[in-house]
Each structure stands twice: as structure tokens, then as C-alpha cells.
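Shipment paperwork, digital attachment
Item: protein structure file
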Amino acid sequence: MKGAIARINPSLVVVDLTHYIPPQNIAAGRFALMNACSYFPPGTVHVAVVDPGVGSGRRGVVVEFAGGFLVGPDNGLFSGVLSLFPAIAAFELTNTEYWLTPTPSSTFHGRDIFAPVGAHIASGVSPTVLGNEIDVKSLVSLSIPECEVRSTGILGSIQYVDYFGNLITNIPGVLVQGKSWSVRVGDEMIPGSYTYSDRLPGAILALVGSHGWVEVAVNCGNAKLRLQLDWLDQLVVVFG
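Attachment content:
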């Protein structure tokens, strides 16, 4: 993909966000992109490829939003970003003139379509020439459950597991700010903390991560393995 970009414009600045998305895990890619996009300069072209439907009838798209452009498969990967910054316009990538080849591989659209299209946009090509405009409401949205605020606490679920095995929930950190709180997983009560080092190495804790969501972690360890939890598994924030 980097080679394809460099062939079009070798002066472009290419930043790797992550290569640690688990295979075929669109939800993980959605989370990583959603939490990173606002840190990039306005006008940035974000090429994202988590694409288990590559070569099928799923659309390839470019989406313009307030922060720049999103290029990749229309499979819900961009729905996290678009929940924060609504889409301005969207186009299906049908103009092969801006692809690496008019006969792309059926297994690597990232190299043959998305990276070249991203390079062309970053070099000044208007998205309007890349294909037909489509209704932004038709873009695929990945359904991620919202947390439920109850009188006894907050019912949430795990929306992401990072490289360290930290369990990031769908509970916004602002809901626990300034309160005494813990996370209950099964019969275990996990105390709310401010930093990882508030607990001894090997101890389990909960805190608000840099992304602004409540997470469960093990200081110098792996919470996913420790608790045997994974995507969409439920837990509860308890106050007091």
C-alpha cells in the first residue's frame, strides 16, 4: 500500500495508525479510527482497511467529513468517526482511472484501490471524479450497543481489547468523574483508580483511559486473559 501511494506522490506524509487490528475485526478498526481521527490535521485522508468482504459486492467508498476524508470499504468501519463528525458527502469508488490497475486483485483492494485513491485525494483530486455520489444515509453502520444508566449503576459492555489486553468498555469516563466507583465482573469487584500504578503489579483495576472510556486493566498484566472476557461481554459500574 505504501508503494502504491509513493508511485502516485512520493512526497506525501504517511502515518501508520496501527497494524494490531485482529483479523476481520471491523469493530476494533472502527474504535481505533474513531479515537484517533481528531488528532490529525484538518484535511487528512484516512485510508482504513479491515475488509473481510474484499472482492464481494460490498462498496468501496470515499466519505468527506469535517476532519477530512475516509477511504475504504463500506462495511461499518467508518461509523465510529461518523458518529462524531457527520458525513458531508460520499462517493462510490467506480472510476478505475484512479486505481492502481483497472483489474484489481480480488483479495487486496487496499493496495489496488484504496491506497491509490487516498493518494490522489491527498494530491488534490476531487472526490467528485472518483465515482457516483451516494446518499450518506446509505453508508453501512456497525451497531455498537450503548451503555445503560440505571439507579444501581451503569450496565456496559466491552467495545475494544487493546494490544496489552486492556478491556475498553462503552461507558464514557465522564459518567464516573468525581465519584467513588468500582466495576463488577461476575462476583469480582474491581476498584476504580486514577492510574495503572495506583495498584501493585499484577493487581486488577479500573480507570478512565486516554481515549475517555472506562477500561479494566491489570497493572503490568493482561485483563483479557485474567478475566476471560472479550468483545461485547458485559460488566457493571457500581457507585459508592
